[in-house]
């Protein structure tokens, strides 16, 4: 038999030596924890007795900021960064001899040579000599040039690069200079003087090149008179402009009081154009030259009944008349044949009717004779 104190499945039972007496340790821990809670409660009661009583949560002493009084965030930081960027930039400053101090002769000569070179390039750019030939034409040019030609070409190429990278519009400056010279030759004041005198000069009444009465200065009146005489619009200088190259004056300018009848009948112009188109459409067209089919123009097999007419107009006309006459004869013979056939069919129909009548009489007589014979036999 299995011992009484052993497990049913043969598992060893735990020894009694592993059991510990936890009563003492648990009691000590509970006592120490209780004493700490009692001491903490006593400390809090003393604090409540010493401080005045307060109810509810503590309210903040600062008011909420107004949204209209609040500035943008990081504004001062961005302003400081902008000032720092400005400090890093290089600005042009003009210094005198007292600021620079002593400068040796070589530096002065070198600076003077550079300024002269800049002045010469500026003058050449104003003249526009570098625009006479393009870089593509120079590339396609022959390579048999001498050293002077190559040097001049390199100089013009350098000037083109300077012109492309320049901040000065030399074409506009040239146009302004030419306009100033033209106004000076015509005895007209310059544009700057006009701007200054506009506030002082009295206004006069004049008629411009379009026939309109305007109010302006004496210079504007003179300019309008010059435009009316020369035909060149106001503001365009006369710089060696040939007479045939100038624009013609418009011929449909209305001068003085005029009644514009087209305002009362705006469709008159359209109706006139439509009438012209209808007249061209209804006009009898010119007969084109007669062209006929040429049978010898191409080599191919013609169909049945093909007839090649002559190239001569008279012979062609005779052949067509003969062909028409032959057609009429054919149609006449065809009609006669139809008439004969119709008469023959009619005679056949009449003969058939007569034969049918005779056949009916014979049948009737045969019927009566047979009927009489049968009656006679019956009586006998």
From TrEMBL:
InterPro entries: CCDC174-like. Residues 370-380 have a biased composition (Gly residues). Pfam families: DUF4078. It comes from the Eukaryota. The keyword Coiled coil applies. Residues 1-26, 39-83, 126-158, 170-380 are annotated as: Disordered. Residues 13-22, 140-158, 170-184, 291-301, 310-338, 346-366 have a biased composition (Basic and acidic residues). Residues 190-208 have a biased composition (Acidic residues). Residues 42-53 have a biased composition (Polar residues). This is Uncharacterized protein. It comes from Ascosphaera apis ARSEF 7405.
């Amino acid at each position: 038999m299995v011992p009484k104190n052993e497990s049913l499945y043969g598992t060893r039972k735990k020894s009694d030596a592993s059991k510990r007496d936890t009563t003492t340790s648990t009691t000590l821990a509970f006592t120490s924890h209780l004493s700490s809670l009692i001491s903490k409660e006593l400390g809090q009661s003393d604090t409540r007795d010493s401080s005045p009583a307060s109810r509810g949560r503590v309210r903040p002493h600062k008011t909420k900021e107004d949204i209209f009084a609040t500035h943008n965030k990081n504004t001062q930081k961005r302003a400081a960064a902008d000032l720092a960027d400005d400090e890093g930039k290089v600005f042009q400053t003009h210094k005198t001899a007292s600021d620079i101090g002593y400068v040796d002769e070589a530096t002065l000569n070198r600076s003077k040579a550079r300024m002269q070179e800049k002045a010469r390039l500026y003058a050449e750019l104003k003249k526009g000599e570098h625009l006479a030939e393009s870089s593509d034409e120079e590339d396609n040019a022959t390579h048999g040039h001498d050293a002077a030609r190559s040097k001049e070409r390199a100089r013009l190429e350098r000037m083109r690069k300077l012109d492309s990278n320049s901040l000065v519009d030399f074409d506009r400056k040239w146009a302004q200079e030419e306009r100033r010279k033209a106004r000076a030759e015509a005895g007209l004041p310059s544009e700057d003087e006009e701007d200054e005198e506009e506030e002082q000069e009295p206004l006069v009444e004049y008629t411009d090149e379009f026939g309109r009465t305007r109010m302006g200065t004496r210079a504007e009146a003179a300019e309008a008179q010059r435009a009316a005489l020369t035909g060149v619009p106001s503001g365009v200088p006369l710089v060696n402009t040939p007479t045939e190259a100038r624009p013609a004056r418009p011929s449909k300018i209305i001068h003085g009081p005029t009644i514009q009848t087209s305002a009362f009948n705006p469709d008159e112009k359209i109706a006139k154009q439509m009438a012209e188109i209808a007249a061209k459409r209804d006009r009898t067209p010119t007969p084109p030259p007669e062209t006929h089919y040429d049978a010898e123009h191409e080599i191919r097999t013609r169909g049945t009944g093909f007839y090649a007419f002559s190239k001569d107009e008279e012979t062609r006309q005779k052949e067509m008349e003969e062909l028409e006459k032959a057609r009429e004869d054919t149609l006449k013979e065809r009609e006669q044949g139809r008439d004969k056939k119709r008469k023959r069919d009619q005679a056949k129909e009449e003969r058939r009717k007569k034969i049918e009548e005779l056949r009916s009489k014979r049948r009737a007589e045969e019927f009566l004779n047979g009927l009489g014979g049968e009656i006679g036999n019956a009586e006998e």
